[in-house]
Amino acid sequence: MDTKKYRTGLKRLLAAIIDGIIFIPFLFIEQWIYKTTNNVYLLFCWTTFLVFAPIIYSIFLHFKFGQTYGKWVVGVKVLNIREKTTLTLRQSIYRDSFYLLVAIIGLLYYGALLMRNSDQETILTEYSSFSDNPIFWWTLIELITMLTNSKRRALHDFIAKSIVVRT
Fold it and tell me: What does the CA dihedral 17, 140, 153, 67 come to, rounded to 10 degrees?
């Protein structure tokens, strides 16, 4: 077995950074929206978009092309565990299922915060601490999983029956 083609840990990290950079303009728009409006419905809609956009981006691009723009730049691709085909839509969803679950629960919590509190800063602080905590622990588990097997598969790869390989 050629384990060199699976040594993608640093490339995956760089790909994630590149994918994150794609969404930076939306953060500037968010700052502007929060400074210019107190409309609860607009804030809720924008947050919904901002939370789900990266997840949908990941699911769609992994399903359609086997890679996000970040993975394309660094030269890696996500394939079915048999390494012959790209992912099915179901596998792509499974791959991001934890983030999807946190996003849905977090959005419900955010909606509840908006209904009971009008102070935007308090709402953002509470929402961030609520949703950032599980993401931190999931990321840690993902890294540990990825660093402890020869094919560098993260936990989401085991869940989706996928593997990241060099192209």
Answer: -20
CA separation for the pair 138, 43 (Å, rounded)? 27
Query: Other C-beta atoms within 10 Å of 101: how many?
Result: 11
**How many whole angstroms separate alpha carbon 136 and alpha carbon 81?**
26
At 5 the pLDDT is: 62
pTM of the complete model: 0.87
